[in-house]
Design goal:
Rossmann fold; about 325 residues; 14 helices; 2 domains; eight-stranded mixed sheet; single chain; alpha/beta; 14 strands; six-stranded parallel sheet
């Protein structure tokens, strides 16, 4: 399941033939590329590290204009107008909200998105076969048929799974929930009921967690939801004494509070976005003709510190499966 094998394939894509000078498009060494960050999500920042690393590996030195919107729609408008004024050759949109806003405002500059969980479900593109317009990209989508069995491996008695979401940043977590419920409605799906709580902001988290705990859940799902995973202290403070573990599909959730996380390698995701960008810049390929990329593998992260805090005994089968084991909230070791 570890997706590190993809790096070799990536470097092949950027190697010999991929690095040959093309006369069909733009020399990436002379390119000016805008990078739009909606917020400083760990997912997006790690993908950005992958973008930088891939350009270095490819021997390319484009000018990267990195702009942070800090979750401000007006700031996004100013940033995109600046990109147009500076005549950037391509825009990287980091994450779902950045991709949606760039798509709506820019129709004459190629856009490559990355770290978008489900671009079809969230409306970034109409289908996985290509956008038919000026946008392409790749997705960190992992289906519920993968996520939920790992959660159940982490919590073998799991029958009732709480999910904590927000209205402010819940676009992706809503897509995760819809997909999970659709999967669980199938005849072959595990017998898990998802109990949802939605908050307007961080101040609503404590009461929402209390309601989840009162509904006799066995675990709490921390989805890809910025408001939630950036405010895990009140979640842990209530769940840990009750011995209720957190599980997560977000990088920050896996690092800072969940006993187990299921996610993609975001750095590799960013590297693969560079392959798409070079295809557009060097080869002159139309973004709308490029299929939306997905990751074929996933990573299981186990957090021993989180398990100790809630006095939860991690199943041996989960530890054997883990690609990465966190010794505490800042250090890790390979799980295999």
């Amino acid at each position: 399941m570890n997706v590190r094998w993809g790096v070799g394939l990536l470097l092949l894509a950027l190697g010999a033939d991929g690095l040959a000078q093309s006369t069909a498009g733009i020399d990436p060494d002379e390119a000016r590329i805008g990078v739009l960050l909606w917020h400083e999500s760990p997912n997006d920042l790690t993908a950005l590290d992958g973008i930088r690393r891939a350009f270095v590996s490819a021997g390319r030195k484009p000018e990267l204009l990195i702009r942070k919107a800090n979750s401000d729609v007006d700031a996004v408008t100013r940033i995109l107008d600046e990109f147009r004024l500076l005549e950037v050759d391509l825009i990287f949109a980091m994450g779902t909200q950045a991709a949606l806003l760039a798509r709506d405002r820019i129709d004459d500059i190629p856009i490559v998105f990355t770290a978008v969980t489900n671009p079809v479900e969230t409306g970034v593109v109409e289908g996985w076969g290509g956008s038919k317009r000026n946008i392409a990209g790749n997705s960190n989508w992992i289906g519920p048929e993968t996520i939920l069995p790992v959660f159940r491996l982490a919590v073998p008695q799991l029958k009732r799974l709480g999910m904590l979401r927000s209205r402010a940043s819940g676009l992706v977590s809503a897509a995760e929930l819809r997909a999970a419920r659709a999967y669980l409605a199938g005849e072959e799906a595990p017998a898990i009921t998802i109990v949802e709580e939605v908050v307007d902001g961080p101040e609503g988290i404590p009461a929402a967690v209390d309601r989840l705990l009162a509904s006799n859940i066995e675990a709490v799902w921390i989805p890809i939801d910025f408001t939630i995973y950036e405010n895990l202290d009140p979640v842990r403070e209530r769940c840990d004494p009750r011995g209720v573990p957190l599980v997560s599909s977000s990088l920050k959730g896996a690092q800072a509070g969940a006993v187990a996380g299921v996610l993609v390698d975001y750095e590799l995701l960013g590297q693969r976005a560079v392959v798409i960008a070079l295809d557009i810049l060097e080869e002159g390929r139309a973004p709308g003709e490029i299929e939306i990329g997905t990751m074929r593998g996933f990573q299981v992260i186990v957090n021993l510190a989180a398990a100790r805090r809630c006095q939860y005994e991690l199943p041996l089968a989960l530890l054997v499966l883990a690609d990465q084991i966190l010794e505490d909230d800042t250090t890790s070791r390979d799980g295999r």
